[in-house]
Structures are given as C-alpha cells and as structure tokens.
Amino acid sequence: MIVIKTQNELQAYLKHHDKIGFVPTMGALHQGHIGLIQRSMAENDITGCSIFVNPTQFNKQADFDKYPVTLEKDLELLLEVKCDFLFLPSVKEMYPEGISSTPTYDLGYLDTVLEGEHRPGHFNGVCNIVHKLLGAVMPNNLYMGEKDFQQCMVVKRLLEITSLPVNLIICPTLRADDGLAMSSRNMRLSDHARRKANTIYHCLQYIKENQGHASFVSLRNDCLEKLASNEFQTEYLILACADSLQILGDFEAGKKMVVLIASVLEGVRLIDNMRL
Ligand code: AMP
Questions:
Q1: Is residue 174 within 6 Å of ligand 1 at its C-beta?
Q2: What confidence tens digit (pLDDT) does each residue in 196-241 have?
Q3: Is the pTM above the cut of 0.90?
Q4: Of all protein residues, whose CA lies closest to atom 18 belonging to ligand 1?
Q5: How far is it, in rounded angstroms, from Cα 49 to Cα 178?
Q6: Are 120 and 59 in contact (CB under 8 A)?
Q7: 144 lines ligand 1 (CB under 6 A)
Q8: Which of 30, 33, 122, 131 is catalytic?
Q9: Other Cβ atoms closer than 10 A to 9
C-alpha cells in the first residue's frame, strides 16, 4: 500500500489507473470501513481509502477534540486488507485558505431535519470535504455506509449539485455480534456503557417487528422509556420516508420507510437506523 499526503502526488499516482474505487473515512477504522474497502476492491481496478478527521463537519469543538485517532492500527488493517493506497492529508493540505471561509451548498430540506437540525453546519462540512476529496481522487465509484443514512442522501445531492461523474454505492450497516452498529465512537464507551449500547439496536428491531400491531407513537414511547432507563439521552427517534426523509406520523402501507435514531450514552453520541 502506498501512503500519499498531497493532492499533487495523488494525481500523479492515479493518472496511471483506470477504474478507481474510493472510501473516505475519518480513521479509527473498524470492520464496517474494511467491508466498504473489500467491496470496492472487488469492483474496481484500484481502491483507495482516505483518513482525514474533517474539522469543518464538527459543530462542537469538544467532539472534534475527542474524536479517536488510531493511525498505527488503521495502517495495520489497511495493509492486511491490501488496500492499494491511503490518502492521508493534513488540514493545511485540504484547507489551504483556512477552515472559516468554506463554500456553502444548497442542501434544502435535508439540512433542516434530524442530523441537519441537531448538528448545524455538519452537512455543509461533509460536502466541503467530500467535494475536495472527490476532486483530488476523481474516483469512478464512491463507497459509503448506510449507517449514516442521511449523509448518503446528502452526498447524493452533492453529486447532483456538482455534476461530478461519480457513482455512489451505498453499503449495508455492519454490526457487532450484539447488534450495535460499528462506529469509531464506540471505542469511547466504558465497558458498562458498551454493554448497554445495543439498546438502540433492540429498539429499532422492536419497532420493525411490531409495525403491524401498534402505532408508531406508542412503539416510540416504549423505546424512549427503555432508552431512558438505560441512561440514554435521546435526541430523536423518527419514522421517515426512506426516499425523501419526509417525517411520518405513523406507518404507511406501501411506503418505503426507515426509523432513525440519535441518542447519547456517557457523552458519546450514537446514531443508527433501520429500514422497515
Ligand atoms: P466515518 O469514518 O465514521 O466517517 O465513516 C466512513 C464511512 O464508513 C462512511 O461512509 C460511513 O457510513 C461508513 N461506515 C461507518 N460505520 C459503518 C458500519 N458500521 N457499517 C457500514 N459502513 C460504515
């Protein structure tokens, strides 16, 4: 695997390659990331991953400061999976003009609900960095995880706005054996909290399994109680249309639906979702 730190070196290296697959990450890699890389390796001539903890997508400085960095272990995992290249730029390389004067993207409704509502500026930061990374790598195929359901929709919108000729491939969420969605943030949980963390998954399953038997409101109330009794502070637990993310009051037959949740355990903000 070749490690590349500047966009110039990256472009020089990539001009000799044809079908490029790309997996952008913020590091602290886990099997969820590795799954995306393996899928890309199976479908492209060359696969690259980027590791960059993007400062413009953190609406809280403390969250940025606490974001886990495990570069040595990440390199081991990438070597093991035989990823072709790692793009590992500095903040200066990606934001030579600084991080305060970045462009804004018209994300419309998507930026007003759920993660958009609870993390102002987050998706604009995501668009900034994904746009820059795509400009640098110019991949044919971009691999992202459905774990970040709304982010996938935002990136789809970014590709429409920018007309970049990139194919977005959304991959299923990889979970730990107890159901907890894999996430870099999980490593910040204490053993005590980690044992409770899959309550989120159980709630999503409960809503999915009972959708024909009770209203969403009553199932949601059961889940909010269960989460609270397990020391979670829930920011949202929402039923939405899976195509538009329009929020739904109750289950609608024949509609593609998804339940999305953000909940905080021991100061660690966890998100997850499940299609119904
Ligand atoms: P992150 O490093 O958290 O920004 O994630 C980088 C990419 O990996 C994003 O496209 C995420 O959606 C994806 N990802 C993160 N966790 C998982 C998971 N458990 N399963 C599948 N994809 C994931």
A1: yes
A2: 999 999 999 999 999 989 999 999 999 999 999 999 999 999 999 9
A3: yes
A4: 32
A5: 27
A6: yes
A7: yes
A8: 33
A9: 13
Query: Does residue 192 have an active-site annotation?
Result: no
Sheet holding 85-87, edge to edge: 2-4, 85-87, 46-51, 20-25, 141-145, 167-171
Contact 125, 131 (CB under 8 A): no
Ligand 1 binding pocket includes 32 (Cβ within 6 Å): yes
Q: Both ends of the chain: CA-CA distance in Å?
A: 40
Atom of ligand 1 nearest to the CA of 172: 21
Residue 182 Cβ < 6 Å to ligand 1: yes
Helices (H), 199-255: 199-209, 216-229
CA-nearest of 51, 1, 43 to 18 is 43
How confident is the model over 157-187, as pLDDT tens digits? Answer: 999 999 999 999 999 999 999 999 999 999 9
Residue among 197, 214, 207, 215 at smallest CA distance from 237: 207
